[in-house]
Amino acid sequence: MSEFMPKVDGIANAELEKTVGPWGEAWRNFRKSKTAVIGMVIILFFIALALFGPIFAKEGINEQMAADRLQPPSAEYWLGTDDFGRDILSRIIHGARISMSVGFLSVILSVIVGSFLGIIAGYYGRWIDTIISRIFDIMLAFPSILLAIAIVSVLGPGLENALIAIAIINIPNFGRLIRSKVLSIKEDEYIMAAKGIGMKDARILFSHILPNSMAPVIVQGTLAVATAILEAAALGFLGLGAQAPQPEWGKMLADSKSYLQSAPWTMIFPGLSIMLTVLGFNLMGDGLRDALDPKMKN
Fold it and tell me: Does the record bear Transmembrane in its keywords (predicted)?
């Protein structure tokens, strides 16, 4: 009797997969990864901080109070104050909204533009593919942060221009990812059947090819948000991103670098915020990759 149990379990699992669907199965696999769940909790915490934190933060985050300058963490100032007497906790809370906005918006722009170019290049091929692929190769030949610095130098320093620069430098990553996926899908039988019945290219691309190419994009997008937050912090640290008195985490690090020994809390807490946010997205991205990529399943 026992020899039939594996077959029964296999049939039950197959029926369960059909019931929950591929996305339900991916969610079930994602929840099995403790590190991925921890990453998701960290991300949800910072998203909640960005959305609702400013309601509870102290008002006047940009008001200078010389009497409270460089105060250590205390009951009044939980994370201390900076060199202008501003509450670091309140500025970190408001900075979460800036960093999250830059991360998500830049990645969304990169996904939209990169996916469009990648689909066009992979589906039509020939000279269109050659031109788009060579543009991607040229952009990827430069270190991403140097290319971002160059773009911001042309556009001018500022948070909006930093967002545009970060979006531009991430376009080739999504474009090449989608292009490779399209090349593997466009010869499938259901795509050939759609062409055979006279379905228009636009409908084939956006109704059949794009939805079946989204799994790797979701994984790459999650990891790209972490990279975008780091790049925004780097540009802010260099004075090319957020400008004073905006409480962006990288800008806060730049303003506090002179007080590393005398008032280390002014750098520690913004740095921890960056580290935890990036860690959360990386952990969640790894979990999504394992859940969505069939090759990674046991």
Answer: yes
